[in-house]
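Our platform keeps sequence and structure together, in a single record for each protein. Because each token names a local backbone shape, the row as a whole describes the fold. One such record is reproduced below, unchanged from the form in which we store it:
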Amino acid sequence: MADRGRTRGRRGGGGGASRANRSAPARRPEAARRRTGDAETTRARLRRGLAAKRASGAAKVLGMSTTRRAAVVAIVVCALAFTIAVPLRTYLSQRTEVREQQAQQAQLQQEVAQLQGRKAELSDPAQIEAEARRRLRYVKPGETPYIVQLPEDKAPDAAPPAGQQQVAGSSWYENLWSQVSGG
């Protein structure tokens, strides 16, 4: 019969309910209020607790503290940076070199275009004759050439100024002695 009372008490039946069961309905509304008001907080706590358990589980699996894990991560990041640095530097230097080569190629193409234009000009016999007369001072048979020299066209004498005359064929120390002695 005692078993019957307990089962009825658990089911919410009346007969063998204890005093604690009677006071429970009075507390339920208050507990329900706490659950609904703090539902977000409770969920957040549970999530944090699960994350902490996972993190501590990872630390236990690896057998390392947080500081050691941070050091390992830093070493891995540095290794990756050094691994990427050399190819990146090579890529940037080659890109600069390609730009320089392209600029040089454009300049050479302009020069080729100019030379092809000059070649087209020189394919004319009249142009060749004019160049020979101007540069080489050629004249046709029977023509009398005249050369007019203006005073500005004359070259100055090749003699150095009086204070800087050097004796030809003498050694450097003789030149030095002659400059020191004034003779």
Summary: Residues 20-63 form one domain.
